[in-house]
Design a protein that fits this description.
Number of helices: 5
Largest sheet: 8 strands, mixed
CATH superfamily: Gcn5-related N-acetyltransferase (GNAT)
Number of domains: 1
Mean pLDDT: 94
CATH class: Alpha Beta
Shape: globular
Helix content: 25-40%
Order of helices and strands: EEHHHEEEHEHEE
Strand order of the largest sheet: 1-2-3-4-5-6-8-7
Structural class: alpha+beta
């Protein structure tokens, strides 16, 4: 029996329901400062029990996915649509690649493209937004490749190592999103 189940397939990755059995890997990732600082979680400690609670919540509610490498069926991170408002067609996105050596290789970009395609083409969203800290240039480049554009900042809202950084707010509109992803699986 498989560990992951393909819901959304790209060339490099597929998105699967989150597997709570990956608790130790997620706990290692979220306690690593290279992951927790950009996510705004650096001051917090994540025990196995706390991470299990988080994973159980993510796996049972909303539209949260494990990001899985197609070539090896190995877990890379997760992504999801949160604060979904079906009436207004809005949602917020969250994403991370846990393994440092796998970052900057296009996995996050493709996962975000799949998630946006799902949001716009299946969930009929109008606007997907995200927040990123201004020092996270790699993430900002990823978001821009997908089509996200900055629409505002909250100045000095993030303090780390004695320096203040802006929260950058970015959005992608359904009318601006162009991708053939999921088109083969959906009616024309």
């Amino acid at each position: 029996m498989g560990r992951y189940f393909c819901k959304l397939r790209g060339e490099k990755v597929y998105l699967s329901p989150i597997n709570v059995d990956d608790i130790e890997l997620y706990t290692r990732w979220i306690n690593n400062l290279s992951t927790s600082v950009p996510l705004g979680q650096a001051p917090q400690l994540f025990s196995l029990a706390r991470e299990r609670e988080t994973l159980e919540h993510l796996s049972s509610e909303g539209h949260n996915f494990a990001i899985v490498d197609r070539s090896s069926d190995s877990l890379l991170g997760n992504c999801g649509l949160r604060k979904l408002n079906q009436i207004h067609g809005t949602a917020e996105v969250g994403i991370f690649i846990g393994e440092e050596k796998r970052r900057g290789k296009g996995y996050g970009t493709e996962a975000l493209q799949l998630l946006a395609a799902f949001g716009f083409k299946v969930l009929n969203l109008h606007n997907i937004m995200l927040r990123v800290v201004s020092f996270n240039a790699r993430a900002i480049r990823c978001y821009e490749k997908v089509g996200f554009r900055e629409f505002g900042r909250r100045s000095g809202a993030f303090l780390i190592n004695g320096k203040r950084y802006d929260d950058v707010y970015m959005q992608l509109l359904q009318t601006e999103f162009r991708s053939p992803l999921l088109d083969e699986e959906l009616p024309a």
